[in-house]
Write a structure and sequence with these properties.
Layout: H1 2-34, H2 37-43, H3 50-84, H4 89-121, H5 130-155, H6 161-186, H7 188-194, H8 196-231, H9 243-271, E1 295-297, E2 314-316, E3 321-325, E4 331-335, E5 340-343, E6 353-356, E7 362-372, E8 378-390, E9 393-394, E10 398-402, E11 407-413, E12 419-425, E13 433-438, H10 450-460, E14 477-484, H11 501-509, E15 515-520, H12 532-549, E16 558-564, E17 568-569, E18 574-575, H13 579-588, E19 595-596, E20 601-607, E21 619-622, E22 626-630, E23 653-659, H14 662-674, E24 678-682, E25 696-700, E26 724-727, H15 733-743, E27 748-753, H16 779-791, E28 794-799, H17 803-823, E29 829-833, E30 841-845, E31 849-853, E32 870-875, H18 878-894, E33 896-897
Parallel strand pairs: 15-16, 16-20, 27-28, 28-29
Antiparallel strand pairs: 1-13, 2-3, 3-4, 4-5, 6-7, 7-8, 8-9, 8-10, 11-12, 12-13, 14-23, 15-21, 17-18, 19-20, 20-24, 21-22, 22-23, 24-25, 26-32, 27-30, 29-33, 30-31, 31-32
Helix pairs in contact: 1-3, 1-8, 3-4, 3-8, 4-5, 5-6, 6-8, 7-8, 10-15, 11-12, 12-13, 15-16
């Protein structure tokens, strides 16, 4: 009878001890919350780290629950140790504390999620509430098993562990079942309204029952183990776990905890916002206009005076501006009686020529035998070079013309402000002359269409450029529209090539003489050839071989910059891992060195430094004279389905390339992204795989250019307008220009676009029609609807029908059509789904302004202070517009009206 009483006493005391521990533990959680511990921990994460804050919520909840569980187990374990009379209470208390911390921290949160799910599933009614009873019992079973496992191995010897595990599992399972039955009986969903005090007390009793029965079962089991030990003549402490067992448990715990912590660390790193070093105000670094290609002429065809080979000084504007070549080969300049200035490099051989432009700025041209390449290496050469005095400094000398030998030059300006350079080579007995012109470059807003003018005024009034900055929109020449997978003869006379637009980009790259700037968001691994990456890298490889074979043809050497968008890879929670694929492809095509001073070669590869947002830009700049804005990534899916790679998916896309001064704006935009980028430099690509990677190091990307690419190029036939439209998280010219141009439309708007979306949250409109209204429109949609309502502009949109884009586009149609009907304007707007897959981002406004680029008509690409990096290029060229109209009409006839299209398909209902 005494033994029975002692067992009952152990059950009751230990059960009450764990109940007390649970009450104190959960009260502690409540108080920690009330006194701001959770808030303090949450605020340790910076305000700008939105995604880390989301991750912090469950982690803080886990920490708080684990802390409460540790208190529960600690108090219960101390009572348990006292009840069996052991002097080593610390081990028992610690083991129980760890056990309840682990099980409470992990399982309670899961249990609450299940409760919430069932409540949501039952629509928060009392129907089928018996599911709560089942869930309580199941939770008690799992909670008891996890707690028992940890507590058993940390408190008793191996041979007794099964008893503790069984007691904990059965006790908490039984407690959970009874608690569930009580919950079912009192039905708190109704009871809290009818008898709130009684229901609350009974509910609290039900919630403590698992701790009472589970704790009591543990107390009973430990008591019996202790009693058997005493009956065997041993001390109670002998049943406690030995040191080696604790060590084994700790090691096993580390094997579990360390991977979890590593995973959390990886996830937190993946979710960390890393802002790029972007500028809110930028302007081109252009230092003037490029010299035209040499024109042969005779002495009779132009009025000029060449200096003799023994002349000592060049003079312009009387004696105010003087230039001469010193005996040690350094250009000297003096204005009036002012101090003598000098241009240290490159050296001079003969008398320089000097002239003033319309603004009175002096230009000096001289012959030299040396040039400094992209790597800063001085190389021999034979050329005329020019320097301009700007901001009281002389610009880096730019190559005006390459010659066979020493040249004698004359420099003058005409009434229109054009600089005229005439030269003859001293060794040429025929007296043959050559002429090159540096035109006076000025743009007039009178030459802009209303849509272009509205766009220009929007960017001039938004403080993104210095007040005296000029936008180089005029004197540009349309080059081509780039198509993927391939153009169709119905709308383009371009030749079909094996790899479509990827071949077009490669062709442009291989024309480079000084520099290639390439930017793309996604660059996929080469799985089968040809891949987009292998096509790109082959063009860089061909350029490398050309420089290597004939370095004299590239006096400045060659710079190739490749900037990736730091694209997220969700499969392994990494950012920008595709950068190594670029270097692998370069190695494969025979690029031996990323930097080779002997031939003047330099290829640099970097990741955009920003994360959340990353960069969505796709652009190309060649020699500062040609610029292309692209809509496509370097991904197999843009290939035709019958492509030899076997990976094509016919995803339609567009790009636009132009030649002219607008490329200077694009360089500036590229530099804004490149500066501070995460660059990887590998010293030796000739080593085998596994070894060349060891020569790689991370560096911070910096901007520099050879001076030729910072001179605006005026194509001989350039007579159309073009704008470079760039946006970042802090720079919004693209947003402002596009929105203003759309709103200014008076005739027509045609879009071929993947996205035509409302705001992000409008996807909920699919579940709750009417949730989203016109108030949730993005700026581009507001501008289009403004043009429709005010100017009765006709709008046609061809958009994507698959994946989330298709769903968002359907929401837009569902929201705007009723409003158009209400206004009687429904005949002015027609939305259709592309027959196939489309990834293009393009707009034609009033048949006068064509915009193509990377900027989607979606929330991800719009909004001041947020959104991805994007770029577009525009053109007013009639040929480009006619080609796009032909493309649009072809695709429009194939497109499917919204009301007839099945979601995700290319067929009508």
């Amino acid at each position: 009878m005494e033994t029975q009483n002692q067992s009952t006493r152990s059950f009751l005391i230990t059960g009450l001890g764990y109940v007390a521990g649970a009450v104190v533990g959960y009260l502690a959680i409540y108080l920690f919350g009330q006194f701001g511990l959770a808030t303090w921990l949450f605020n340790l994460v910076g305000e700008e780290q939105t995604f880390l804050k989301l991750l912090a919520i469950p982690l803080i909840a886990w920490f708080m629950l684990a802390l409460g569980g540790a208190i529960t187990g600690g108090i219960g374990g101390w009572v348990l140790a006292n009840s069996i009379g052991t002097e080593r209470r610390g081990k028992m208390t610690a083991g129980s504390s760890v056990a309840f911390a682990g099980s409470t921290g992990i399982l309670v949160m899961i249990f609450l999620l299940f409760i919430s799910f069932i409540a949501l599933y039952n629509n928060f009614t009392a129907e089928r509430i018996e599911q709560y009873g089942i869930l309580f019992g199941l939770f008690g079973l799992i909670f008891g098993l996890v707690t028992g496992l940890i507590q058993a191995f940390t408190t008793v010897r191996l041979r007794h562990t099964w008893r503790v595990i069984l007691a904990s599992t059965s006790g908490f399972a039984l407690g959970g079942v009874i608690a569930g039955l009580i919950v079912r009986w009192i039905n708190p969903l109704n009871g809290l309204e009818t008898t709130p005090i009684l229901t609350t007390l009974v509910l609290l009793l039900a919630l403590t029952l698992p701790y009472f029965i589970g704790g009591g079962a543990l107390g009973l089991t430990y008591h019996r183990i202790a009693q058997r030990t005493i009956d065997a003549g041993e001390a109670v402490e002998s049943v406690q776990s030995p040191r080696w067992q604790i060590v084994v448990v700790a090691i096993l715990a580390l094997f579990i905890i360390v991977p979890i912590l590593n995973f959390i660390d990886k996830i937190s790193g993946f979710l960390t916002v890393m802002p790029a070093n972007l500028q809110s105000e930028i302007s081109p670094e252009t230092t003037g206009i490029r010299w035209s290609d040499p024109i042969p002429l005779t002495a009779e065809s132009i009025d000029f005076q060449l200096p003799s080979s023994n002349s000592e000084m060049a003079i312009v504007a009387g004696t105010e501006h003087q230039a001469w070549c010193s005996p040690d080969g350094i250009i000297q300049y003096q204005f009036g009686s002012g101090p003598v200035e000098q241009i240290d490099f490159p050296s001079c051989i003969s008398t320089p020529a000097i002239a003033l432009d319309l603004e009175g700025t002096p230009h000096i041209v001289w012959y030299t035998l040396e040039v400094r390449d992209t790597n800063g290496v001085t190389k021999p050469g034979s050329m005329l070079v020019e320097s301009v005095r700007q901001n009281e400094e002389w610009s880096e000398a730019v190559i005006a013309a390459q010659t066979e030998g020493e040249a004698l030059a004359s420099l003058s300006s005409d009434a229109d402000g054009n600089l005229i350079l005439v030269w003859t080579e001293a060794a040429d007995q025929s007296g043959a002359l050559s002429l090159s012109i540096q035109e006076n470059y000025q743009c007039s807003e009178n030459d802009l269409s209303p849509a272009e003018l509205a766009g220009l005024e929007s960017i001039l009034g938004n403080d993104t450029r210095p007040p005296d900055s000029e936008v180089p929109f005029c004197r540009n020449e349309f080059d081509r529209i780039i198509y993927l997978p391939n153009p169709d003869p119905e709308y383009s006379d371009q030749a079909v090539t094996p790899n479509g637009g990827f071949d077009q980009v490669s062709e442009l790259i291989e024309q480079a003489q000084f520099e290639v700037l390439f930017n793309v968001m996604q660059y996929v691994e080469t799985k089968t050839k040809p891949s987009p990456g292998s096509i790109f890298s082959e063009s860089v490889g061909n350029l490398y071989q050309a420089v290597k074979a004939n370095p004299e043809d590239y006096p400045r050497g060659m710079t190739v910059r490749i900037l990736l968008g730091n694209y997220p890879v969700f499969a392994d929670f990494t950012w920008g891992s595709q950068i190594i694929e670029v270097i692998k492809d370069l190695k494969t095509v025979g690029v031996e060195k990323m930097v080779d001073p002997e031939i003047g070669w330099r290829v640099e590869v970097a990741n955009y430094p920003g994360v959340y947002p990353h960069s969505h830009n796709k652009m190309l700049v060649v020699d500062g004279k040609l610029a292309a804005s692209l809509g496509f990534n370097y991904n197999y899916i843009h290939f035709a389905k019958d492509h030899p790679s076997g990976e094509g998916d016919d995803l339609f896309d567009l790009g636009l390339s132009v030649v002219g001064p607008v490329a200077q704006d694009v360089i500036t935009h590229y530099d804004d992204m490149w500066s501070g980028a995460d660059q990887i430099h590998c010293e030796d690509l000739t080593l085998p795989d596994g070894q060349w990677q060891d020569t790689c190091e991370e560096v911070i990307a910096t901007n520099d250019h050879v001076p030729e690419v910072l001179r605006a190029y005026l194509p001989p036939d350039g007579n159309t307008n073009a704008f470079s439209l760039y946006r970042s998280k802090v720079f919004n010219e693209a947003d402002d220009f596009v929105a203003a141009s759309l709103a200014a439309s008076t005739e027509s708007i045609e879009l071929i676009t993947a996205n035509f979306s409302m705001d992000l949250h409008c996807i909920l409109n699919l579940l709750a029609p009417g949730f989203c209204t016109l108030a949730d429109s993005m700026p581009y949609l507001e501008s289009i609807l403004e043009a429709v309502e005010k100017n009765h502009t006709h709008v046609r949109v061809i958009m994507e029908n698959a994946n989330s884009y298709g769903l968002e586009n359907r929401v837009t149609a569902a929201v705007i059509y009723p409003e158009l009907v209400r206004l009687g304007l429904e005949d002015l707007v027609d939305l259709r789904f592309y027959n196939g897959r489309v990834h293009a981002k393009s707009a034609l406004i009033d048949d006068s302004l064509l915009i193509i680029g990377s900027q989607n008509f979606q929330y991800s690409a719009w909004g001041k202070g947020g959104g991805l990096g994007e770029n577009n290029i525009t053109t007013s060229d009639p040929q480009a517009i006619a080609e796009y109209l032909a493309l649009f009409e072809t695709k429009w006839e194939e497109a499917i009206p919204v009301e007839e299209a099945e979601y995700g398909g290319s067929t009508s209902k």
